[in-house]
Amino acid sequence: MRSQQSESGTKCHMNRQTWVEQSFALVSRGGYLDALGIVYPVSLAEIRSLTDSTKTVISNAMRETDDAKMLRRLLALTGVKFPFNDPFISFLRAAPDEIDTNHFTVSRICARLRSMGESEVIDAMEAPIDPNRRMGHAFSGWLQSKYRFIDDRYTFERSAESLVFYNAGGRQLRELANAKGCGLQKEPDFVAKAKGRFIVGEAKWLGTEGGNQNRGLDDALNLAGRTPRDASTVAVLDGILWIRNSGQMAQRVSNFAGNAMSALLLDDFLKTL
Questions:
Q1: How far, in Å, CA of 90 to CA of 16, rounded?
Q2: Do residues 221 and 202 lie in contact, with contact meaning Cβ atoms separated by under 8 Å?
């Protein structure tokens, strides 16, 4: 019962509270994560199983005494995650000839591979995808399950329906948003139309403070802080920032004057337009 009330029972407070204030209040009432499970369902991820032939390639590579040959064999594997994050791996994968001319870098990478050993390398390659990296797809899936989407831009822009979303890739969403005066460099997460008003939004799950999470908040607030002539903008934010006085994110959003809110309040927001 509480989760249902959290998602739709706040409309009576709209005239007295901003969307930011409503989001803080929603979390403080309790049951926030249970309700949010509708938007961001978290399930145990399956391991990325490697085939026997792939494991044989890895095993042979790990036995190589020549660093360049070892790395070249591993990078030649397609659709396989490298066993650890290194900022130079994508460059070497795209330009394998550079393996022969960057001896220090290759030696450093291979030294770490050897320190891990064959078993640990395979385990790392089979590790499930970090659930936090699935959150954007989860939000899009929730929108698709909840609202009507229109594929054709012409039909979408001229729709007289009370609420529809534009079903398109990020580039097309940005083109439409900019046609409405948003002036975006980055691609938004959604474009909707409610009672003749266009809505451009960015959605973020913010699980921790710092790093990419702070940049995600920057992107969302940058979009929601814009006031284009032909659209409304909104930051749909969830996570640690709605815990009052929890840190820099909570402080930043508490001082934000634009439309920022939990996904659990998005439906109420759209109905006010």
A1: 51
A2: no
Instruction: Flag the least confident range among 6-15, 73-82, 98-107, 233-242.
Output: 6-15
Rounded CA-CA distance 71/215 in Å is 32
pLDDT at 12: 37
The answer to whether 169 and 218 are in contact (CB under 8 A) is no
Using a 10 angstrom Cβ sphere, with 0-12 exposed, 13-18 middle and 19 or more buried, the burial of residue 206 is: buried
User: In this structure, are residues 190 and 143 in contact, taking their beta carbons and an 8 Å threshold?
Assistant: yes
pTM of the full structure? 0.68
For 11, 56, 71, 128, 235, the CA distances from 111, given in Å and listed in that order, are 59, 20, 11, 24, 44
pLDDT in tens, 128-150: 765 555 676 889 999 999 999 99
Pairing of strands 231-239, 163-166: unpaired
Which stretch of DSSP H or E encloses residue 25?
Answer: helix 19-28
